[in-house]
Amino acid sequence: MANNTHEQDGLDQVRGRIDAIDQELLDLISERARCAQRVAQIKTEVDGRAVQFYRPEREVSILRRVKGANPGPLDGEEVARLFREIMSACLALERPLQAAFLGPEGTFTQAAAIKHFGHSVVTRAMATIDEIFREVEAGSCDFGVVPVENSTEGVVSHTLDLFMASPLAITGEVTLRIHHHLMSAETELGAIRTVYSHQQSLAQCREWLDRYLPHAERVAVGSNADAARTAAKEPGAAAVAGYQAAEIYDLEVLAERIEDEPGNTTRFLVIGKQDAPRSGEDKTSLLLACRNKAGGLHALLMPLAAHGISMTRIESRPSRRGIWDYVFFVDIIGHRDDLPVAAALEHLEREAQLFKVLGSYPVAVL
Amino acid sequence: MANNTHEQDGLDQVRGRIDAIDQELLDLISERARCAQRVAQIKTEVDGRAVQFYRPEREVSILRRVKGANPGPLDGEEVARLFREIMSACLALERPLQAAFLGPEGTFTQAAAIKHFGHSVVTRAMATIDEIFREVEAGSCDFGVVPVENSTEGVVSHTLDLFMASPLAITGEVTLRIHHHLMSAETELGAIRTVYSHQQSLAQCREWLDRYLPHAERVAVGSNADAARTAAKEPGAAAVAGYQAAEIYDLEVLAERIEDEPGNTTRFLVIGKQDAPRSGEDKTSLLLACRNKAGGLHALLMPLAAHGISMTRIESRPSRRGIWDYVFFVDIIGHRDDLPVAAALEHLEREAQLFKVLGSYPVAVL
Questions:
Q1: Residues of A in contact with B78 (CB under 8 A)
Q2: Is B42 helix (H, G, I), strand (E, B) or coil?
Q3: For chain B, where are the E strands, in sequence order?
Q4: Are B182 and B253 in contact, with CB atoms under 8 Å apart?
Q5: Which long-range contacts link A296-301 to residues 24+ away (Cβ below 8 Å)?
Q6: Which residue of B has its CA nearest to A128?
Q7: Where are the residues marked Essential for prephenate dehydratase activity as a site (chains A, B) (predicted)?
Q8: Taking 70 as the threshold, does the pLDDT of residue B218 lie above it?
Q9: How many whole angstroms from its chain centre is CA B51?
Q10: Which end of chain B is more exposed for a tag (fewer CB within 10 A), N or C?
Q11: Residue B151 banded pLDDT, cuts 50, 70, 90
Q12: Which tops the pLDDT comparison, A276 or A250?
């Protein structure tokens, strides 16, 4: 009992310190908000009304510095997330950012928008990716968030096509972890003879399917939602999809998180009227075209190699426009204002039949 | 230009101050996390391994104090939300809280769990409300979050029934804003002859429907998802539901946010092994029963009136158990440890044929 009283004193003391810290935090967060207001005021005086207060390169610099200086015990991701929210709240004081996303509410694209801008962003659901581009072009939304890679919704290539005709630039990237589940109207794994899903999802769960459903046929369909719909009707069928699909089509989840890579991520791009200034750790996305795929590609990429620029992604698409046979979407490491990148781009522009910088933007921090 | 340079100096100065503030914030948040670890360590020494580090009454006290002391310019809600996230991160250092919710991922119930516990909580999707109760009773999850009021998913009464047989207590409440939209396969409002939805949703949009669709018949169905499914098949039909339903059933949203009360909220309860200590601003939920509804109710509520206790909600349900004709779920203002409440409860217990305190818990802050 004496011991408990002693411990109680210890608890009271630590809790007293927490209360004092909270007061200091409140004061500092409030002062930070006032500073953000002051920044907005100065910028408005200089640039007039149309000024954009959001500076992606400064935000990521702050997040990177905080992660780097973090003494623990919280981990760097967690601390960066807290600062993302503090910055989001301060920025929203002037005028909340509006971000268009591919609806409906609750999609991965909305989650990506919130992860990128923090919870003080106003997210606006659009029915199509075209609409997202239009809203941002018209200035009704400050930014748009579009899926671009590894998505299971069958919309990715469409995003890339839209960039060809759009004046918009890429101002950021977001990555999200995605999980896949096996679901069916059957209640036993042993009853599954066919597994439906989007091709990408099937590929992402290959090892699990090889191991637990080696004899089941895999059938690629247009989307994971389509797969779930089929699984609901067909005896012996299962689908690989998200929880939502299981609920909608009243399927039983037979196995959770069956993706081979636990870090399976989907990438999204943030689009806006202009790209981002240098942050020190950037990517640049390019749109290139040549007439002949086989021979042309080598020539096209030569300037990058010559200037020691690394590519993180290349994707070829048959052109819809008929002038070129193929267009390439290429992501490289570095900002277009970095000297070696600038030199490589100048070289590329001379060589390529179509050359467009879609934007330079900070590598995702969170 | 000279002026711009002057302004640039001003900007640099404010940004320098922001950077210094961020460093201080980082240090304070880290120290707060260390304090939380110290609290956990002391508690574990005293109480052994099974100790619960989450103290709902202390969390809400901190949030209320922060809101009260907030000097601006951020509004109180925003500041409380930031502190919720900081506390959530600190608490998760020991062991992340696990909260069971009514799945699938992306439901309102999951949103409620995250709103209540912050983003560092681990949310676990359950297929049914029964399962949520079971997981918490078994100790596999620390807490559960269940819908209880004004829900359009047809599950609310089931939640109340489960409390009758469960040893679990209510440890908190959460409220969420909910929006309704009118959707149809038709593309013109003029073509709508029937509007389907859950009865509660129809009621919540009555004024809008009276005004814009005065001649359309309103038909109550089991859930908003059912309504959307019907609207997809039937010419001239529309549904009142959330965005998700429009997407799933490929309906056009003809009008957004048609609920009469812009502040339309749904309430959720947090359940756990024990209820919450006093926070100074609490509610208590009771389960009462009597044999005869009409005469019994007056007698049942008399002790509350006699002790000056306010009710915020009363709901009668026919009893499934056959011993009583009716059971009442009653929410009152105050904690069961508050003197007038304690006196009223003692009185009630003598009068009622069934008397059960489901829990005392802090009034929702956010």
A1: 89, 92, 120
A2: helix
A3: 98-102, 122-126, 143-149, 169-177, 181-184, 194-198, 217-221, 237-241, 252-255, 265-272, 282-290, 311-318, 326-333, 354-362
A4: yes
A5: A296/A326, A297/A326, A297/A328, A299/A351, A300/A328, A300/A348, A300/A351, A300/A352, A301/A330
A6: B247
A7: 266
A8: yes
A9: 25
A10: N
A11: very low
A12: A276
CA atoms within 13 A on the CB side of B298: 2
Residues A134-164 pLDDT 10s: 999 999 999 999 888 654 444 466 777 788 8
Domains of chain A: 17-92 (1.20.59.10), 96-177+264-274 (3.40.190.10), 181-255 (3.40.190.10), 275-366 (3.30.70.260)
Q: How far apart are CA B191 and CA B11, in angstroms?
A: 57
What DSSP character marks residue B106?
T
| A298: closest CA of chain B, how far (Å) | 43
**pLDDT in the model for residue B351:** 81
Nearest CA in chain B to A243: B104
Residue B150 has pLDDT above 60, yes or no: no
CB B126, CB B147: distance < 8 Å: no
Residue B99 above 80 pLDDT?
yes
Min Cα separation A175/chain B (Å): 17
* The residue to which tokens 């969420």 are assigned: B176
**Phi, psi (rounded to 5 degrees) for B292:** -125, 125
DSSP state of A50: T
CB contact under 8 A, A78 and B86: no
Preferred mutation among A82, A120, A223 to probe B, highest tally of B CBs within 10 A: A82
Single-letter amino acid code for the residue at B313: R
Contacts of residue A71, defined as CB under 8 A and 6 or more positions apart, other chains included, come to: B26, B27, B30
Q: How far is CA B334 from the centre of its chain?
A: 18
> Do the Cβ atoms of B78 and A26 come within 8 Å?
no
Rounded CA gap, B86 and B80, in Å? 10
- Judging contacts by C-beta atoms under 8 Å, the chain B residues touching residue A41 are none
**Whole-number pLDDT of residue A149:** 67
| Rounded Cα–Cα distance for residues B251 and B322 (Å) | 45
Give the tokens for residue B335: 């904690």
Of B22, B69, B242, the CB nearest to A83: B22
Q: Which residues of B244-259 are buried (b: 16+ CB within 10 A; e: fewer)?
A: bbbbbbebebbbeebb
Check A90 against B74: CB less than 8 A apart: yes
Q: How far apart are CA A339 and CA A341, in angstroms?
A: 5
Which are the contacts of B59, defined by CB distance < 8 A and separation ≥ 6? B84, B87
Tokens found for residue B77: 């809600």
Paired with A311 in beta bridges are A332
Mention every residue, 6+ apart, whose C-beta is less than 8 A from residue A282.
A276, A333, A334, A335, A338, A360, A361, A362, A363
Question: Binning pLDDT at 50, 70 and 90, where does residue B175 land?
Answer: confident
